[in-house]
Every structure is written in structure tokens, then in C-alpha cells.
Amino acid sequence: MCISQVTNHAVRLKGLTHSTPYHFRIKSTDAEGNLLQSDDYVFETLKMPTASKITMQPVTNQATATMDISWETNVPTTSVVFYHPETDKTPVETAKAALDTKHTVRITNLLDDTPYILTVSGRDGYGNTVASDQQRFHTATDSRPPIISNVTI
Fold first, then answer.
1. How many CA atoms lie within 13 A of 90 on its CB side?
2. Any alpha helices (H) in the chain, and if so which ranges?
3. How confident is the model at residue 41, as a pLDDT?
């Protein structure tokens, strides 16, 4: 408890729960011992970003395996996808800097007929981050017929 007589006060609140309303009232005692009390005030802590509805959709008629990765966040965040084949633990990152709640990132040049692991993530305007659990998908084999052209006899 602070006993000094000052006119400016600041208190840092720690351990608050995100997305929670808090009520507070300021109480103070002046130099003569009179109790001063403010009105009741309310504030709500920020929502922490969460990711949901993650889908992985193959894109057809591409020269290499390509996937559209889509998801939603509860607050606007950047769009980042980290992915790698199951046999190679070095992640590749594809990102968009714009803050959105509906995200789609296209990943290209994937290996045919290969299992992959990916994580979607993002950062909101306050620097809070979100990362999904690992997701798995398997690319298809390219079954497009070859295009033969410029044949001379």
C-alpha cells in the first residue's frame, strides 16, 4: 500500500484474463484523512486471437501440386502458413501482411503424392499471436495428360 501523498497515480494490473470485463473503483485518502472514492468504471481486456475452420483445398490444373489453405480468426490477424513434407522438418513460410479475419493462403510447388504437415498462424495489431495445432494433408499425383505440341514429321 502506498502511503506517500502524490497527485498522479499509476497501477499496473497483471494476471488478467483475456476477453474479460473488470470493474474498478479508485479509493484514496487525502492529507487530512478524508476518504475519496471514484465512480465504478469498467474495462474489458483484449481478445486473444484464435484460429478455427481450417480447410485445405487442392487447386486443380496446376503444373505442380498446389493447395489453398483457408481459416478464420476471431480478431483481425496476419496470415501465415508454415508447412513441410513429413520427411523434411525444415518449414517453408508463406505469408500475407494484411490484417483479416478470413484468411486464404495458396501454397505452390508442392511435391506430388507426398504427406505434408502445416500450421496456420498470425499476429494481431497488438502483437498477440495465434498458432493452430499441426494439420496434415497429402498431395495427389499429377494425373493430367501431357500436352504434345510442335511435332514435325
1. 0
2. none
3. 93
Cβ count near 139 (within 10 Å): 19
- Specify the amino acid at residue 57: Q
**DSSP result, 55-89:** EEEEPSS-SSEEEEEEEEEEEEEEEEEEEEETT--
Convert the pLDDT of each residue in 36-55 to its tens digit.
899 999 999 989 999 999 99
Going by C-alpha positions, the residue among 52, 50, 15 that lies closest to residue 124 is: 50
Q: Is residue 75 within 8 Å of 47, Cβ to Cβ?
A: yes
Residues with Cβ within 8 Å of residue 108, at least 6 apart in sequence = 62, 64, 66
Cα–Cα dist 153/140, whole Å: 35
Residue 6 cell numbers, joined: 502524490
If pLDDT is split at 50, 70 and 90, which confidence band does 8 have?
confident
pLDDT in tens, 73-104: 999 999 999 999 999 989 999 999 999 999 99
* Cα radius of gyration (the chain): 27
Amino acid at 110: L
Residues 141 and 114: their CA atoms lie apart, in Å, by 9
